[in-house]
Design goal:
Layout lengths: L5 H12 L7 E11 L10 H9 L9 E4 L5 E4 L3 E2 L1 H21 L3 E3 L16 H10 L4 H6 L2 E6 L5 H21 L5 E2 L2 E2 L5 H7 L3 H4 L14 H11 L4 E3 L5 E3 L5 H6 L5 H8 L6 E3 L3 E7 L7 H12 L1 H11 L6 H7 L4 H20 L3 H13 L14 H6 L6 H7 L6
Antiparallel strand pairs: 1-3, 1-4, 1-5, 1-6, 2-3, 6-12, 7-8, 9-10, 11-12
Helix pairs in contact: 1-9, 6-13, 6-14, 6-15, 12-13, 12-15, 12-16, 13-15, 15-16
Length: 415
Amino acid sequence: MTRLTIDAVYEYMDGVCFKKGPPGTVGVETEWLVIDPGNPAGYVSPARVRDLMSAGGSFPGGSLLTFEPGGQLELSSRPRPGPEAACRSMRADLAHTRRQLAAGGLALSGMGVDPHRTPLLQETGERYNCMFAYFGTKGLPMMCSTASVQVCLDVGADQADAVRRWEMAHELGPMLVAAFANSPMQKGVRTGLRSTRQAIWANLDPGRTLPVLDGSAAPGTDDPAAAWARYALDARLMLMRDGRGGWTANPGLTFREWLDKGEPTLEDLGYHLSTLFPPVRPRGWLELRMIDALPDPYWPVPVAVAAALLDDPVAAEVARAAVAPCAERWAEACRDALTDPALARAARSCFAAAHAALLRREATPLARLVADYAERYVERGRCPADDVADPLGHFVKPVQLPEPIEEELSWLSRN
C-alpha cells in the first residue's frame, strides 16, 4: 500500500471529507436505548434484539441497523432529498423496528443517557475492545449509556458555501444542545445537567471530542479541510494495526507522529477519522452529533430544524445572527439549556426561521411538528429534560400530541 504524505492527508480532507455538491440531501441516524417495559432497569442482550429484527426481514425505508457498545440500537437512513423524505423513511423503519421488538416484549426509549442502568459493555468486537482499552472505565458511560439523533447535511455547493455551512453548523451547536437536551439523569440520580450526554462526550478526550472550530479564528478565515486535517493529525491514535492481522490499542502517539515515521496508509487515515467524535464531523457530508436522543414523535424536529437553517438562505441569515452571541456556550447549553437567556433567545429566533422555511417548501407536517415542539418547550424556556421527574416513568411513556398534528404526521409514514 502507498504510504501517506502530509500533502496527501490535506488532499484527502478536501476531496473526500469536504466533497462539494449542491445542498439539499439529508440523512438521519437515530440511536435508541432498548428496554423491557416490564423491567426497564434490566439489561437487554443485543443478540436477543438481532434475533427479533432478523425475523422481520428488510426495512421498508432501507435503513442500516447497527448496535453501539452497550447494545443501543442505531438506524441510519439512506441519503434523501430533503428532511421530509429522510424523516418519512426513518419513521417507516422505526415503526417496523417497534413491531419486531414488541413481539419479544421489548421497546425503544428515546433518551440521551440511560437514566437507570449502569454502563455495561455488551458488544465486544475488536473495535469496541480497543476503544475500552483506550478510554478505560471512564469511557464506559459514553460507549454504553448514550444515544443521540444525528443529522447529516451536505458540505456545500462550492468552497465559499462549504466554509459558511461548516462555520454555521458549529455556531448552531450550543443552541441545538440546549433546545433538545434530554438527559438529566444517570444511574437513577440527577446529574445537575440537562444534557449529560453532550457533557460526557465533551469531557472524555478533548483532542477527539471537542469542536474542531474553537472560535479562535475569525469567520471565513480558516479552510475547513485544513482545520479538520490539523485536528486529525494532532489526535492520539486509539488503535493501530499490529502487523500480525490484529490491532494494538492506545499505541501512545498522534497520527502526525505516526505519519512522521512513514508508516500509515490511506486506509489507516480513514479508520483513524472514524475514531474522532467532534460535535460536527465531516465525512463527505456534515454529521451533526450534538443532539440528544428524543422520543416519538419529536425525533424529526432536530432533523427539520437543522436542515431548514442550513439549506434555506433566508433562515440561514436569521439563524446565524441569532446564534452569534451564544456560539461558544457549550457548557451553559449542557447545564442550563433554555433557562440560559442568550440560548433561549437564539432558539426562539431559530425555530421561527426554521418553521417559516419549512412552510416555504410546503413541508407542512414537519412545520406543524416544529411549531408544536416550539410551543411546548422553546417558547417556555424548557427542553425535554425538564419533563423528567421519574427516570423510570419517563423511560416508557410516549409524548401525546394534539390530535390534528397526530393525523398529519401519518403523512410521514407513507412510503
